[in-house]
Amino acid sequence: MEQAAGRGGMGGLAAQRGILFGATLTQGQVAESAEMVRIATEEMAMLVPGFEFKWPGLRPGPWEFDFSGADAMLEFAEARRQAVRGHALVWHGALPDWFGEGPADAMGMRTLLRHHITAVAGRYAGRIHSWDVVNEPVEPWDNRPDGLRDSPFLRRMGLDYVDLAFRWAAEADPTARLVLNEYGVEMATPEQEARRTALLTLLEGMLRRGVPIHVLGIQAHLSAASWRDFDPAVLRAFIRRVAGLGLECYVTELDVTDRGLPPEVELRDAAVARTYREFLDAAFAEPNVTLVALWGISDRFTWMNDSRFAQREDGQPTRPHPFDQTFQPKPAWGAIGDALRGAPRR
Predict the structure, then answer these.
(1) Is residue 174 part of a domain?
(2) In a domain, 309, yes or no
(3) How many angstroms separate the CA atoms of 282 and 267, rounded?
(4) Given the residues 42, 136, 182, 286, the one annotated as active site
(5) Of 139, 248, 253, 286, which is the active-site residue?
(6) Confidence check: pLDDT of 5 > 50
(7) Which of 143, 204, 270, 278 has the lowest tally of Cβ within 10 angstroms?
(8) For residue 41, is pLDDT > 50?
(9) For residue 74, what are the domain limits?
């Protein structure tokens, strides 16, 4: 088997189905683990730098940039002929300490945001497969009539911040696919139905206004213990609604927490694998799902052990990813491969 990413391994299998497959990776993981480098090189056709394109890593000051980490990760991927996703140009959840609430008026926020998008997307124009332009703009529980999140960007600029971010990104990098990325849309629950409704309303309005958007990103941070609330028909119907708007769907941050599962490793791994398989079977059944990015490769490096929403209540390390802490493939890796082999060709 050829080891160049995208021609062999899971990336090659996905490519046979017309799907771009990859995972998040950070500069720290590359430096620390030769095994992570090996798996990323052999199995992934695409990489998503986990921290290096976010504001805290790029913006030491209001008008300063440090591109060293982003440059390094882009060069790492390009040396392996891998595509790169940019995550994320606008996200309320990852802002540097100096940002605070941002400028006090709409014009100041507009100037700051345009400067950031133009500088970052412009620097890497032609080298980024797709940008998460705005990340997590919807939050129905903030009780706005439009369902949008009460973020600093929205408070200063209003709804215009979403439209303008996409317009500025398109100007800075006309070749990249532009993505609106959101979580909590996979499950058949009233809470997630409200999020789906708000998200569709936002997308429809953007398209009416001629905003250059190409893709809806479905993060897919899943829970094996709550999988009883999953209905593949609900997910597929939502994806078809998005397709009807003329948009692709990407699965952008796929992982499965084992919080709430029994302590036995075999039971946990089987439930996690089943969750990966059933979700991907439903997603791949829709032809506008053309990309999957894992939000973690190995349990050695997982955000979940540090998250009060994802860590296990019994204190055991989580096992959410396809490879364990010693970089051995788990049942989840086989389940992902089986889902790809069963996916219709795009």
Answers:
(1) yes
(2) yes
(3) 23
(4) 136
(5) 253
(6) no
(7) 143
(8) yes
(9) 9-341
